[in-house]
Design a protein that fits this description.
188 residues, alpha+beta, 8 strands, eight-stranded antiparallel barrel, single chain, 2 helices
Length: 188
């Protein structure tokens, strides 16, 4: 009987301790910088030969070489495409920003004015994956995933396996092409 009382007392003590410890400070830990902010593409380097046309084939020149081989920085073309989507807001691609607000909206904004346009939504899928659902005129919403995501106080970087862009930004008649890009977006 004495063993039973001791065992019961031990179990009650252990349960009490577990309860007291679990009722401690429940504040969430700081998970590092938030993805919320305004960004400008500062680097967009092809991570694979491209572009891909609507059928998924690499567009080539007359000699069969890809128009954009791996390692080419196309940040000017990406910013020009953003300017096309934000032409009502900005007159210069250097001022176009992609803003991810705290409600999950993706906005095109202009750094030299208060103008903005709702252009989709964003969702952080994991610590290393971000989905931007971008509304493209005449096409509709298209999910664009940034994988291998790294977020810091000054920038966001990662890989976009299939970034859709209008073909005319690189001189192609195709209405829509896709590029596999390693990107860096500077935070304002």
């Amino acid at each position: 009987m004495k063993k039973f009382v001791r065992l019961t007392a031990f179990m009650l003590s252990a349960l009490s301790l577990a309860f007291i410890v679990s009722c401690g400070d429940d504040d969430e830990e700081d998970d590092g910088p938030s993805v919320v902010g305004s960004y400008q593409f500062t680097s967009a380097v092809t991570a694979a030969d491209g572009p891909l046309d609507a059928t998924g084939q690499v567009v080539t020149d007359q000699e069969g070489n890809p128009l954009l081989p791996t390692g080419v920085d196309v940040v000017e073309q990406v910013n020009a495409a953003l300017l096309g989507g934000a032409a009502d807001l900005c007159d210069d691609a250097a001022n176009v920003r992609v803003t991810l607000d705290d409600s999950g909206s993706l906005l095109y904004t202009c750094s030299n004015s208060d103008a903005s346009a709702d252009n989709g939504e964003w969702q952080q899928l994991s610590d290393t994956d971000l989905r931007l659902t971008i509304n493209f005129d005449g096409i509709g919403p298209i999910p664009v995933d940034i994988n291998s995501l790294v977020i810091s106080e000054t920038q966001l970087s990662g890989n976009i396996a299939n970034l859709p862009l209008p073909g005319d930004v690189i001189g192609l008649p195709d209405p829509l092409i896709t590029l596999n890009l390693d990107v860096v977006l500077a935070r304002d």
